[in-house]
Amino acid sequence: MRRPNVLWISTHDINPHLGCYQGVYPGAEYAVTPRLDQLAAEGVVYDNAFASAPVCAPSRSAIYTGCHPISIGTMHMRTKAVPPPEVTLFTEYFRAAGWYTTNNWFTDFQVQTPGTAFDDCSETAHWRNRPTDDTPFFATFQGMITHESQIYLDDEAFAARTARLLPEERHDPAEAPLPPYHPDTPVFRQAWARYADLITEMDHWAGEFLDQLEEDGLAEDTIVVFWSEHGLGMPRGKRWSYESGLREPLIVRWPGVLAPGQRRTEIVQLMDLAPTMLEVCGIPVPEHMQAKPFLDRDGEFLVQNEYAFGGRDRMDVQEDTCRTVRDERYRYIRNLHPDRSGMQHCEYPDHLATWAELRRLHSLEGNQLAAGQVRDVLTPLQRSVVAASKPAEELYDLHADPHETTDLATDPAHAEVLDRLRRALDGWIEEVGDLGQLPEDELIEQWRPSGRLRPTDAPQVAVEDGRLVATCSTPGASLGWTTDPAGETVPAGFLAGAIGSPEQDGRHWRLYSGPVDPPTAEQVWFRAWRLGHEPSEDVAVRLR
Fold first, then answer.
1. Which GO terms describe its molecular function (predicted)?
2. At what angle do helices 56-65 and 273-280 cross, to 10 degrees?
């Protein structure tokens, strides 16, 4: 059986606001997404796909490791975690099995990206650069078009960002399907229209890769997966553990295996993508992965999840903790700090127009109270988003209340549901562990005693039977080798450094997965990486 190629098309900060989700997810009817709708018609749409966290880096860490963030220490937004030694980025398994792996270009996995994770992790990475036409590939393109920051560009910059949109593709703010938790003001209407415009722009971008597959004659041999990592960048979306923060689009096309035009309503977690891709490509799924494949090699849907679990922890300087579980109908949220606002002040989002607008309206209500007037600027639901506190527990019936407007946690009629979901959440936490319950300073001290990264031991290299054999004494270390001499290292820029992109020194590191025939070069260098540790020193082996 020919080994399939895999193409991942990933975007930022959207819910299932695509045309193919019309009637399934509220507001999808506003979307203009012909290319992704066509992909959906040719593949399978997953109606209930969920992120592990409502913010980028923790969510991506789950997707790329197949492990829950709270279990491996990647739950806080902006951290450099030290996962258990068995944990690595799953693309390394593809690389070891012979796939050409690329990432263009965003990483943000909460760990420094090791040189062994991808054949190419750069802005020019592409399957077209693979060594031979017969080499299978796993190519990922991570788009920034829909990132929350783009909603709030100035008019000139936004026009340039969406320059290819036709007039009929642009969205009228007056028609924006505002959810009930957002006030009906020009600021929110413009934000929603721009959000939808960016999704259409992203649709064009995604279509470019689908066209390139066709041009290269690869469409029939390639599994295409489209996903986003968490919800939209407005209040009560990104950073909140509601549907609007965690429910995601997921489309899979696999020609000749998955019948086109299907919809699946079972619960899928995005972190299940890692073991699923390994399973369908015939690569063993590591035992340490907590996620489970949802497809087998024949395209059959495997046993469904009864629940999707998730939560949020520190968001930059915003310290808060919640855990959540969702079954096919209900979402239960446990707020561990009910005395804290769900919309605490936070340096980055505070400057975003929708955050500022909601705070402005809330301030007007404060003026009303001071004047002895009844508040009437915000609804109680809108007020709850920016309120100084929140309930200790929340429960919502998603069938009857898709926007989660009515909290049923204190409703006696739902006591049995509440108890069942409480026990499900407790059982999950007991099973996987919860490092989010440790004081973060204590956790960091465990990872980095006295503030120092632990080093990865240098590889030991020997020649056995004419082949190069390398080992490393650091548990969980991955080994790479190169014949490229060290050049001037170009440090990662501020953003790239923050999200864990590797420094660029122009060297291509091959993954060491077994004894290597000596290359024709005069010298070869070996290096070891362990997630959360400093890379090892290079070990040079002179061949001639």
1. arylsulfatase activity
2. 30
